[in-house]
UniProtKB/TrEMBL annotation:
GO terms for cellular component: plasma membrane. This is ABC transporter ATP-binding protein. Keywords: ATP-binding, Membrane, Nucleotide-binding, Transmembrane, Transmembrane helix. PROSITE patterns: ABC_TM1F, ABC_TRANSPORTER_1, ABC_TRANSPORTER_2. It is found in: Cell membrane. The chain crosses the membrane at residues 32-54, 66-90, 152-172, 178-198, 262-283, 295-318. Residues 355-607 form the ABC transporter domain. SMART domains: AAA.
Amino acid sequence: MSKLGGIAESGAGYFAKSMRNLWSLLKGQRKAVLTVVFWIVVIRSIDLSFPFLFKLFVNLKPGTEVTYWSNAVICLFWVMAGLTVVNILFRFFKEVRAQKILIFLENHFPVIAHAKLLALSLDYHNHNNTGAKIARIDNGSKTLVNVVGDTMSALVGQFMFLVLNIGLILFMDWRLGLIFLLPFIPAGYINYLSYVKFGPIWDKIQSKKEQASDIFCQSIIGVFTVKIYGQEEVSNLEYARMRGEIKDIDIKTIKRLQYYQSAVSGILYLFFYVTLWFCFDFVLKSKVDLGTVVYIYSTGATTFNTLSMFIYIYARVLKNLVAVNRMKDLLDEPEENLIGPDVTVPKEFHGRFDLEKVDFSYYNKETGKSAAILRGLDMTIEAGKTTAIAGATGVGKTTLLNLLFRMYEPDGGLVRLDGTDIGRIDRPWYLSHFAVVLQNPFIFDRSIDDNITFACRYIDGWSRKIICSATKGERDMALRIANIEEAKHFPDGIDTIVGERGARLSGGQRQRLELARAILVIMKGAKVLVLDEPTSQLDPKTEEAIQINLKILRERYFFTKIVVAHRLATIRDADTIYILSGGKVAEKGTHSGLLSQKGLYYGMAKQQLSRE
């Protein structure tokens, strides 16, 4: 059971802790919430003033003092009329303000959660499923709005009604007040037992909902794979079974919870009639006035109905708080430390990288074990040169790039840029000098133009508008160098929407589109071009044309080029080639030099030639 199973500790304790979490999430809206709460207190006080004034009316004695009695009746009438007008006005302002708060929260929290996810480390995203994260945010945002609405409009109002009414009855007659209050004790205890029993189950239901969302998202994201292998029915059955489990647990829980709530209602109504019996007995014995009995009778049923509804809504709020707390846990996840104590912004970016005795392991949080990838790796990437990295699958080539991107921090050793530890360099400034082409490019479901200019956008400091710094000429040049000028002849030209993950493009077109994006970044001032299997889906002729275009680009712009590739034809012209093996540099040299050594590189080249 997760830490959210703390519901089982105590209904009230968990509620208090969750309310503190909720209060921390309401930053910026707390004053408005307190204003609504104040209006609710006033409204509930006015609601109770009507039966209290009626009590005074009942206790008036018409007869001899006709003038006094008639004046009192008129006075009470106008007081009640005035309070009615005030009540209507307060309810209007309360509802308007409350709805504004709820609408704000409904749209504000997804934005906060989105920003948080973008701020979390790559390691966090690699260990947490996208569908589950989306479900946590979606459920948390929706239920947070519901909790705030229930708390403001229902719980606070009902609680104040109960407190004020019981206080008035105790003030009128403490004996009847104690009898009236007596059933609250067993009702509260039964309520506590129900939360001890059902709290962990609510947590389990919420967790299963996130798992169901994971199954749903995976099957839709991988719809091509699902269809190509004819797994539509299997995938749907898998999802249906998970939702069926949730349904069965939820229905069973609701049914059992009703037993507790019915027991509470039975106790409350039983004691209500006991209280009425004592009221009539006290009137007959002249221990209380008739107005007090009328007041208790007119508010008693409402009070116990209110308490029953309070318990019901309290249970609903507790159940919803599970999702709110899960989202709060997400928002409390530690972010990447982007700014160290001695962060610096170098005056210049030349582009030389030195990796000194670098160690790195992937840590599995579930098993507690680590898998060593890099072990004491030494490497130098010269500024303005082309450095290639090759090796068998799984030797750490992509891991090495992620260390350069500062997506991970090395377990040991240092990575330096122009002599400065990259951990001490301002990260946004550092990353602004990279242009990257990945083996599996991510293409947004936007236009071709939006995709290639994605990294050239910035926020205007004054207007807060998103502005693109790339000119039309620069975009055309990027498309030409990436050899994807055919995009101009698409149905809507470069405004053509390419579909989710570039579904309407071929694999080669997706790679060339991302290459155009990276080239545009180089043209806007980036100093490092990283190519991770950039042409794996291109034919040799297209790849050769792109390589020629990149050489032309290099004549105009100074940048360091880092290439990771299995296909040695892609890296044969590199100034330096590193061969990784066993987490270290096994060989280093030029294409011809490494071939003459007849080592790992020679074996790779021979193997590729035999396949061709």
